């Protein structure tokens, strides 16, 4: 994804309109396209993530939460169908998180997930976000995308759960 196309977008905004851009990234091996998510994609995104939520692979998202992910989200589209989704939640200029990455089972193993991760990382890079993190149960996939457990300077992310899971 060319960095130039994103340069005129603000670093932090809830009002980004990705629908205005024609930025696409065709897959070399398939006729699928990574593009910024649009609000009119929401129903299809909700349908895509539902089996992953039901299977415990993704956290449930309310309609409002999904709407908030659209301005920094990306979809993979193939033959008019959304087959993948990921979003970048930017917490500060220092830290962002890849959220809700999922790829339709029929499209898994074809590089769609890696391309969505790259779109999110490129988006963060273009906004000078220092670090991108991910919370995942599929660590090998993210290691293959360049993520690691240890940050520069031997820093590590630690978590504490403040309530029981529902």
Automatic annotation (TrEMBL):
Its EC number is 2.3.1.1. SUPFAM superfamilies: Acyl-CoA N-acyltransferases (Nat). One of its GO terms (biological process) is L-arginine biosynthetic process. Signal peptide: none annotated. One of its GO terms (molecular function) is L-glutamate N-acetyltransferase activity. GO terms for cellular component: cytoplasm. The keyword Acyltransferase applies. CDD domains: NAT_SF. Keywords: Acyltransferase, Transferase. Residues 32-165 form the N-acetyltransferase domain. Pfam families: Acetyltransf_1. This is Amino-acid acetyltransferase. It comes from Caulifigura coniformis.
């Amino acid at each position: 994804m060319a960095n130039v196309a994103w340069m005129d977008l603000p670093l932090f905004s809830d009002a980004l309109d990705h629908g205005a851009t024609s930025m696409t990234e065709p897959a070399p091996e398939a006729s699928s396209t990574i593009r910024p998510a649009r609000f009119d994609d929401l129903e299809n995104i909700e349908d895509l993530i539902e089996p992953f939520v039901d299977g415990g692979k993704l956290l449930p998202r309310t309609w409002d939460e999904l709407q908030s992910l659209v301005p920094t989200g990306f979809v993979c589209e193939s033959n008019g169908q959304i087959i993948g989704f990921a979003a970048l939640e930017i917490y500060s200029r220092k830290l962002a998180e890849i959220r809700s990455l999922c790829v339709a089972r029929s499209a898994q193993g074809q590089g769609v997930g890696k391309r969505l991760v790259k779109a999110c990382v490129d988006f963060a890079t273009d906004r000078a976000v220092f670090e991108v993190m991910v919370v995942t149960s599929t660590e090998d996939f993210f290691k293959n995308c360049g993520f690691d457990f240890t940050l520069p300077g031997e820093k590590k992310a630690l978590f504490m759960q403040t309530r029981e899971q529902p």
